[in-house]
Each structure stands twice: as C-alpha cells, then as structure tokens.
Amino acid sequence: MSMAASHAEGKRLNDVIFGAAAACKEAVAKYGKDKVTNATIGVMLDDNEELITLPTMAKVYKEIDIKDIAAYAPISGIPEYLKAVEDLTFADCRPEGYISAVATAGGTGAIHHAIMNYAEVGEKVLTSDWFWGTYNVICVEQGKKLQNFKLFDENQNFNFTSFKENVEDIFKTQESLLIILNTPAHNPTGFALTENDWDNVLSLLKDFANKGKKATVLVDIAYIDYAGEKNEVRSFMKKFGNLPKNILGLFAFSMSKGYTFYGQRTGALVAVSSDKTVIDEFDAIMKYTSRATWSNINRGAMELLLRIQNDENIYNAFVKDREEVHKLIQARGDLFMKEAEDCNLTALPYTGGFFLSVPANDPQKVADLLHKDLIYAVPLKLGIRVAVCSVPLNKIKGMAEKINNALKI
Ligand code: PLP
C-alpha cells in the first residue's frame, strides 16, 4: 500500500556512496581503523582520519552573537553576503555584464534553483557522463531528464565532439537548454576544462544563440578553492562577459568545502548576463523559489563569511589555513597519480580537488576485489572513485597498484 501521491511513489535514493561506506564501517569494526583504507568519504580528513575544520573559521564562528545566528535572514540572503559571494566567486576575473546572486542551502540548493527555473518540465538537461549523481536526482524530482555527453575523448581531453553532438541533438527539439559543467576540480575525476575548451563551448552556444535558441550554463564550482591559484583557476569566468542576451551564465557557490562548513548548508547561485532584464527576472524568480523551498537560509553561516571577508587579518589567517589543507589533499592526489603512472594504471586526468577516478568495465567487481586488500572506494557507473580528501598519505601509498591488480582479474 502506498500513501504517496502518484508522482512520488517508488522514489528511492540509490546511493552507492553510502553503500560503500557501510561496507567499510563493518571492516573497520572487524580489522581496526589502521588496517582499512576508507576512500569513500567526501569530506577532508586529516592524517588521523578526523574531520578537518579550518581553525580560523571555527574561532570566528564561536564569536558570533547568538542573536545573529538565531534571527531570520532576508529571503534572498543578506545583501552584503551576496556582494561578498560575487567577489569570492570571480576574484579578479569578474565578467563584464549585469551580475546578481541569491543565497541557497549549499551548492545543492543553487543547483536545485537553477534546474527549477531554467529547464522546462519534461525536457533535457545536459551534463557529462562522469557526474555527481545528485544532478540526476534533482532533475528526476522536478520532472526533467538528464542527458550525458562523454567527458573524455580517447586522449583524455575534454570531448568537445561529444559535447557538440549532444547540444545539437537536444536543440533539434528544444528551444532552451541548461548545461551543467562541474569545473575546476570536478567530482568525481579532478578534471578541469581548459581555456580552449571553454572557447569551444561558448562559441558553439553563440552559434545557437544567433539562431534564437536559449542556453544557460551552470558552472558548479563547489571545489574551486582546492583547484589551484585563485585567479588562474577562475580566468575562464571572464569569458562569460558580453555574451548574447540569450546565453545566461550561472555559478553554484558553496561554503561546504571552501569553509569546511558542510552541514551548515550555505551557498549561493550567482548569475551573469549582458541584459539587465534577465538579471531582474533572475532576482524575482529565485526569491520566489527560495520562499517556496526553504524560505530563508542559515543566517549564522552568512555572518561567518562576512566576518572573515571584512577583516583583512582574519581573512589572511583563514586563507592560510585553507592553503595548508589544500596542500595536504593535493599531495595525496599527486602521489596517487604518480604511482598510477609508475604502474601503468589509467587514471583520469586529476588536476586537483577531493576526488579522482579510474575507469573500469565492471566497477562493482573491482570495488569488491579491493575489499580483499581492505580498500573501500565507490563503484560508479564508469569506474572507481577514490576520495583523496579523506585518505592519509601513508594509505594512498600502494593503492594505485592494488587497483591496477584488481582491474586485471
Ligand atoms: N557539486 C558537487 C559536484 C558536489 O560534489 C557537491 C557536494 O558534494 C556539491 C556541488 C554541493 O555541496 P553542498 O550542497 O554541500 O554545497
């Protein structure tokens, strides 16, 4: 018997990540934490496998007056927070044009709001075949379909040919299209589009825009603070300036990783357009969706960001904290990639971030075989995801070879 409304019947979260994590927990109970490699966890853990929280963030948060945490916030977010988020999103690479932002419950909320307002019900949203599964969950929840292009070509470069084929295919039947690109430090591969890839993507969309089609590009920058030098990793953002008015740029900003504030559910959706009416509309429809979804979001987290942003000494200390943990996780990813090269394991091109991936024909089988070595990683559709953010360097050592061996069985 189901009491659910007909559209809600049978909805189930099939979360492979939690499945893999549960198997790992059992192994830890049986063999002890030291013997087990848990590469399933998507948050940064230190070398003792404890959750990393940035010390300056923790200190500043504790100093916030309880009234500034407990009070309601404006529906669209605290205005100064939104301005600060624009600056943080673009740094020195602010595109020319009209820009606005709305506060959201994490990056997930930003993605939710983008799909809600820029994809037609019953139509397709496009993202890559290696992708964060939540994109699909949100699309399905809202009656939209996620279509995938192949992220990599045979040389492990951005597969522009596949991207183009998919855009062309969808525009045969749709007047508008929302495209989600998670870059830099892509989950699950650590990949980033190059400047040249961006030129190709935007030039293709301009061709369609000239024919009257509408394109919205949502760039998911959840991991950007762990991708490399601040302005180098943002230089592509300038390309979103002076685009035709029927191309809208959106950026999903998140405090989860950048501030190690995961559970406080704070982020923003930032929009760029050459047309003021598009941005005015963005403000109005986003406010409406916020009211209809969560009303307003976490005030204390917005206060935290502002206090870090508005005091130079605090900001410098905060950035220093973050750089330290960035180095820690980068060293883990780099060691894996070096060992992969040494043993001829084909890992996907990792440049930075929390995750890297290894393609496999039968990911579940490979993940299961790795359990014999007490290594727990996430079997995705196309391969194995390794969360370098949570595995100490001494446990990364030797992992590439073990994965390589499992792939050969
Ligand atoms: N985008 C990607 C690719 C992610 O992996 C995540 C979190 O895991 C997010 C966005 C958003 O995270 P949050 O909603 O915690 O900001």
Compact summary:
Helices cover 42% and strands 15% of the residues.
Query: Mean pLDDT score, rounded?
Result: 97
Instruction: Measure the end-to-end span.
Output: 44 Å
Give the structural class.
alpha/beta
CATH topology of the largest domain: Aspartate Aminotransferase, domain 2
Rg over CA atoms, rounded to whole Å, is 21 Å
Strand count: 12
Strand order of the largest sheet: 2-8-7-6-5-3-4
> Which class of the largest domain in CATH terms?
Alpha Beta
Main sheet overview: 7 strands, mixed
What percent strand?
Answer: 15-25%
Q: CATH superfamily assignment of the largest domain?
A: Type I PLP-dependent aspartate aminotransferase-like (Major domain)
Low-confidence stretches: none
Helix content: 40-55%
Identify every distinct bound molecule in the structure, by name, code or SMILES: pyridoxal-5'-phosphate
Shape: globular
Topology of this protein?
Layout: H1 16-31, E1 37-38, H2 55-62, H3 66-70, H4 79-90, E2 98-104, H5 106-118, E3 124-128, H6 134-141, E4 145-149, H7 160-171, E5 176-182, H8 195-210, E6 214-220, E7 247-254, E8 267-273, H9 276-293, H10 299-309, H11 312-342, E9 355-359, H12 363-371, E10 375-376, E11 378-379, E12 383-387, H13 393-396, H14 399-408
Parallel strand pairs: 1-10, 3-4, 3-5, 5-6, 6-7
Antiparallel strand pairs: 2-8, 7-8, 9-12, 11-12
